[in-house]
Fold each of these.
Amino acid sequence: MKISVLGCGRWGSFITWYLSSQGFEVLEWGRENSPSYNVLKETGRNEYVELNKTVRLSTSLKEAVEFGEIIIISIKSQGLRGLGEQLISLVADKKPIVLCMKGLEEETGKRLTEIMIECGFSKDLLAVWVGPGHIQEFTQGKPNCMVIDGYNANLVKNLANTFKSNLIRFYYGEDIVGSEIGAASKNVMGIAAGVLDGGGFKSLKGALMARGAREVSRLIKAMGGNELSAYGICHLGDYETTLFSEFSNNRRFGEELYKGVKFSKLAEGVSTAKAMVVLSKKYHVELPITQAVYNIVYENHDPLAELLSLFGRRNVAEFV
């Protein structure tokens, strides 16, 4: 089977590495003059993986669309709408598209599959690949569990069975709303966890986990999803890799924000916090932790004081 991977950042390059190691023919696409693409083109590797020599690299989106029987997208979430509009003009809507991304459109709060549907793609050919795992551990042979979810149960099962291996066990998702919201929002909780780490309040991360999952469950339910999805692999099941791991970009962003150090890598929780505030207002759901992260990132509130104020709320029932 031939697979096209659109995106050559951290996860895009890992997916290419993973699928090519499983015997698939893979073409990885990157934008012309992209530093990430140029590194792979010149050296065949980056700081995370070394690509199989059989992998094809291309800056032609048309070539990528024509090559793959399945198209996987792994780019910054805020760039998805623009890419989707390009892909629809290339008739890419005839093939299954898998979004291996975690985020929301920050101005609208739209889920990523919603964006693709608005671009003209059939929901029956759309799926998401989400869940816990760090590249640094996968490449050391340490296994983990992930989820494929979508609108078409047969597509979900076929993709999960196609991509599974001893390294990654895939579960069949049954709640696309819960999977997308849960996967995106855990990055916001990761920023909060990093602030607690930086301020020396690691023990409060237990309360953050419990309250964070409850907060997200309310939002998922209000949006028509299954509130129990917040306690599954895509959200609570991803907390260890996001709230505790040294490899978590969002946790590190929060920690370095507290320390006043500029973080140079992508932390999707930043834009997701903004999007979730939009959803909070739209669905009339209180999201205290999300609002606190938004206040820290966008309103320049004192990071530690903002979070500690949550744990001192008199009416705990409102928060829990």
Amino acid sequence: MKNVGDYNYLIVGGTTKAATTSLFAYLTDHPTICAATYKETRFFLSNDYPLPSKYRYNGDAEEYAHLFPNCAETQLRMESTPDYLYCEKALERIAAFLPQAKLVFSLREPISRLISWYRFAKQIGRLPEMMSFDAYVELLFAALERNGGREEQHLQTLWQGCYTIYLERYFNHFGPARIHILFYEELAAQPATVMAKLCNFAGIDADFYRDYVFEVTNRTEKMRNSKLHRKYRDYRFRLRQWTHDKPIIHNPLRTIRRTIEPIYLRLNTQASEKIQMSEQTRYRLMDYYQRDIESLAELIGKPLPWKSLQKSNS
């Protein structure tokens, strides 16, 4: 009988708010891939990482198999936990327990990512509805100054946009041949091209995506009632954790969700506000990220598709 580490894995990480949910859905549909029973297993995160999970490594890596109950021997097993990028303990555990794993990291231009997080934090009720984006950035820089203990996830977003320090650890440990970098902006603009390159990296057939319909999932919306949405998200999370390994229940519920959720979102969303950002805030963020942008391009060996960070274009 095979152990967990005997299988081939594709581990999707990357920054949050960088289309990892859509990417998980695209990969799940590929017949060569067997996806974990839910996205963001968070299994390999350190035990004190500030995100909940049903399964967390606690001395027995074989528990990871519970997340892949119906996989064929020859299928490529895939899961997606964006925060693996930021967690050094996750790196160590993946290296120790999944020796044949390949890793994919999805990145997003850090200022647009901050804007998306600002919207998302309001959506889930983490920020006051009247807080401006400039005030949110001030809050993040204040958190950076504190930087003594764990911050809530929506207060870590400033420094988590400096990707190089996190990626360097993976490149040094796994080597560039086992790591694939893709960009949110290119996935949104040319999904078929991006997925073809990813398939070549993973060693699976790229023709599957030739006529594939790429739908965006988990889009950040402005909610009419953020408290209701927070309760909805919490209920959905708990229900998924309970049913994920019970396909006779989980699969019908997933079908029902795909039917009902669009209706719910139409009822509880409204037109997104245009985010106002002062020139002072914009330049402050550009200055903060500039050195990391240069280091990241050097690390991956190619220019980044983030023209908006050039001051001459502002």
Amino acid sequence: MRDMRIYKGLILLMLMACPFMGQAQLTMYDFYLDVTAGGGLHAIQYSPEGGDHTPGFGSELKLAYRRPINERWCVSGGLGFSWYNGRSFYEDLRLSRAAVDAQNGEPYEYRVIFTNWKEKQHIANLEIPLMASYHYPINPKWNLSAAAGLKLFFPISNNFKITDGTLQTKGYFEHLTNIEYENLPQHGFFTKDDCEGKATLRKVGAAAAVDLGAYRSFKHSDMSLYMGLYFGYGFTNLAKEHSTLFDGTDYVGVVSSDRIDKAHLISAGIKAGISFGFPRIYPLPEIQHELAMEDENFAFILAGEIEKFEDSEVEDVLRIARELAAAEEARKARELAEVKEVVKWLNKNVKVEFKLGEAVVQMNDEIQSYINDLTHYIKTTPGRNVIIWGHTCNLGTEAKNIELGMQRSEAMRKLLIQAGCPINRVMARSKGSSEPLVPNTCEANRRQNRRIEIVVK
């Protein structure tokens, strides 16, 4: 019942947290590195014969490599460590077996009595998770994530320790005097109250794993925060051997004894971490729109150089400088005109459209190439700025449409800044539904009007 209450509480917490969780477009990045830490119920689950079991709490630490395969799905692998705990309790356990006295050869009954016996188990694992995850964006900053898969684990530490109680051994000689002998260490009858050692477990195991959470991305950063819940169920039976709990010399621990049939690892908890995105480099599509221009400085005449010329030559030098400056200005004007033509063509042919009521840019290779090339041009051309205009269809009030148009232009502004465009040279504006591309007479037309347009000045 206690375990069930814990599970219900974790599920309730997840449902309460979902409205506040989420991340950005997956395909903006080539891959992610996720570092997470979590804690909660980490139980060594078993049912000891003749005793009670209490699940324990533990923690986990994980480093994962996550790679997008499309707009919604990722696959991931990694390396991690986890710690599991459990406790067993025997109030009054009595074991017995037939034995023969080594001194006189008399048969007797060897008895082992556990009184208020409490054992604590601890297992530390090295883990290799293999997961597939689905991401659902709520807005440009947040997305929900659900992951499922398999994790292999390798126990690297498996200890047990007695924390309370006594173990007493006795000998009952029925054929002699019907007397039970105790506290005779020379005959193997003694009392002890502490034991510790290592359990004998399988060297490798497997578990099903499920993660439910959300990513929150930051402005002008490739880093995101992650928070969520995790669940795991080990379907490998860790109990490798079934020895007698105490054979008269060695206490083997509950998990390694014949008091249990199976031992599994179960986990459920809360975790948080940081995700680092590594931007994707897209190849140029077949339509070439190279925006990088030749960067030559024609204004090479310095005031100090004039003194090297004769008076008769100064006028010629100044004339040449003026001509070169005019040529440079003309070159810059042609360059800007070419860029404007390219941007105008791209606004018409490379569609950046949005779903009704949403402000999430639906990325593809052509749009990403457009972003990369435009960013390169702005970075290498001082004095040029980008204005992004957000547009909507005619559904909803104009106040809402102005706000939604601004959210759409901000979404594209963020993509340009993440690609490296100087933050102070990219501006977001909104025109709401005031400038439709086509009449809002049907859904197909309204879909075209839900867009952004870019202007270079």
Amino acid sequence: MVDFIQMVELNGFPQKIHVKGNDVKNPVLLFLHGGPGVANRHFVIGSNSDLCDDFTIVAWDQRGTCGSFKGCKRETLTVSQLVEDANELVNFLCDSFGKEKIFIIGGSWGSCLGTLLAKRHPERIAAYIGFGQFVDGPKNEELSYQFALEQALAHDDKAAIKTLGKLGHPVGGVYKTGYDGMMAQRKIMMKYGGYSQDAKKRSYLDSMVIPILKSKEYSKEDIAGFVQGYSFVLKAMWDEVAGLNLMKETGGRVEVPYYIFDGRLDNNTPASLVEEYYNALSAPDKDLIWFDNAGHNPLGDCPDEFKKCIREKLLPLA
């Protein structure tokens, strides 16, 4: 049995992790949260502790957010830096638990981070799972904006139509008002089920803020770091993240088993882009599994089915 929260120095900057498992002999599964800047320790550890029967699970507050906020400098918040931080953490976990390799799973921005990690540092990664799969930043944003606008028009939502009209279409994945524009679009997209069909997950308050405040996972300092770090990281990184195209970044190949578990109803990182990307990508082994009634976070929308697929895919490789 292992259950601890620890600060780990990754490339010279201390970052918080929570490790939990029932048997240290089990394979290690590292979760990469989204955003960037949206820590999810409460979700990984609190909602998915049943995975501890088969895996040692690891939740990580990435540089700049939550328990890893204090002392972070804006200029260090780059895609390459976070990839290198993730690689340092993979090495730390392998060495700490005596593993040659570990598994990684990433949602949304975490799927982008995980893909880049698998491409640049495949040596100690046993396999990758992505959900809310990021594909192409500019296309992602254009399709997500179009979904929000179509829904607003269909529901004669005059306030939303006005807001989206003022925002205008994103250019290169970025709105002319930057972070504020993206957040305004996301609120409308979520309102109409683009994030989840669950009525309790159609606002940031219900899907993110309330679960964090109710959770016993975070200290007061962690919560303060989350509140400050969320916008701090997004503002620092979004222009770079939104411009990424994973097919170009990978050259069409990764050297680890690569699995996508995606919700067909996702209009945050639109599911309509995933199949073409998956078909074009080469890997030692790959699979695309659809969750027909799920949105951006199928692990949250269909937890039992999703975790069954995790076990079926990863345990034979362990």
